[in-house]
Amino acid sequence: ALHHLHKALDAKARAFNHIIKIGRTHTQDATPLTLGQEFSGYAAQVASSIKRIQQTLPGLQELAQGGTAVGTGLNAPVGFAEKVADRIAAITGIAFVTAPNKFEALAAHDSMVFSHGAINAAAAALFKIANDIRLLGSGPRSGLGELSLPENEPGSSIMPGKVNPTQCEALTQVCVQVFGNNAALTFAGSQGHFELNVYNPLMAYNFLQSVQLLADASVSFTDNCVVGIEAREDNIKAALERSLMLVTALAPTIGYDNAAKIAKTAHKNGTTLR
Known about the structure:
By secondary structure, the protein is mainly alpha-helical. It has 2 domains: 2-64 and 99-243, Fumarase C, Chain A, domain 2, CATH 1.20.200; 244-274, Orthogonal Bundle (Ribonucleotide Reductase Protein R1, domain 1). Helix content is 59%, strand content 9%.
């Protein structure tokens, strides 16, 4: 699902690379960049999320089976742990192995906490991306209006013609659920009392729910929003020309103070830098 989203964002980054827009930091006008560069940042966030999740997978592939009650392997036949891991690996096609230390595998589930942390980080990235896109698509006349988002359904029963960024809203709500799951899973991971952590069912439930929700939401967001995003180039150009932060390019030549004076004068008089 994340690969699917990354591919769509990367395609938009390339399609929008010729469109120069004003950047924003602290929600205020900053120096220019291209819309493609902005979307390349989103694509890179998703790519990094994929990489981080993949790095956690080996820890999830270590099995506690064969440790029996407290990790000593009491009453388990010799070679049982290895044979179980080999059999599960053969059935699933996943490289499961027997955990090298059964005491740790039974008493703690740190690998699951760590892996869900990567999923939580992915949710944080997706929340930022969805939030940016819906804000850039705000309007159509009284918002930023830099993006045109797909009109999937009527947005209001009281305001005719209103279209809401529902895919962005849905994805951010899923991300909030993942954040909550991460809090519960982290606490559960700390509850290994002596030789056994009995919170594994809760951890597994939250983990699997996060995976399913984030995967489904990512696919829906990609197919019903990202692929249909269009740039409103006239609005982008108008905002760029109104911005006073273009004066930054003059600072190396005329000095910071003089550049700031020009920007403040233009702002006071309601004019452009030109």
